[in-house]
Amino acid sequence: MSNVKKILKLPLRISIAVLLLGMLAKILEWSYAKEIMLLGFSAIGILYVFRFLKKSEKQFIDYTKLVLISFWATNGIFRVLDFPYTLFFQIITGIAFITWFIMEGTAYFLDEDRRAKNSIGQILWNCLLVIGTLGVIAGTILKVLDWDYAIHLLSLGITLIGAYVLKDAFVPPKPSEEEQNNEEFQL
Questions:
Q1: Do 61 and 80 share a structural domain?
Q2: Same domain, 15 and 54
Q3: Which long-range contacts (CB under 8 A, 24 or more apart) does 94-97 make?
Q4: How many domains are contained in the chain?
Q5: Rounded average pLDDT over 72-93
Q6: 187 domain residue, yes or no
Q7: Which of 25, 36, 37 is nearest to 154 (CA)?
Q8: Which of 16, 29, 152, 183 has the most CB atoms less than 10 A away?
Q9: Does residue 49 belong to any structural domain of this protein?
Q10: More confident of the two residues 119 and 80
């Protein structure tokens, strides 16, 4: 992963949060859940296409990500609208995901030297993401089994994942070391 600043990062994160809110609304059987999910899937698909088109240097992995996101978002839209024949989109999404995982996978979260560069705060946020993911999985299984507190666990998991997605949206960026080394102090 290069140090190039990615465009549309904040709008994409907000779109993911909207999608998660829509999924939570659907689970809790609230009004307008389908519309919120449709908005989230559509925004993610459109914004990622713009992000791809703005990229100056495109490699095979970039095309793979475009196929992955486009087919995933299209499948989501079709599922929300109850269209048939979504299996095609699911198969293409699965193939694109496997291709991405083989080519980039977890190295996406490492720096260029392939060393993890996480602080204690980042590790804690990553732990919250894992806990949220486990909460979603466990809540889904418990909901299928019709156990008590399944919805609470599922809602907590989705909330934690949503917080993780939006964590950088409201935190000002820290200046890099290069910027700090050339600072002048004024009295």
A1: yes
A2: yes
A3: 96/64, 96/65, 96/67, 96/68, 96/71, 97/68
A4: 2
A5: 91
A6: no
A7: 25
A8: 16
A9: yes
A10: 80
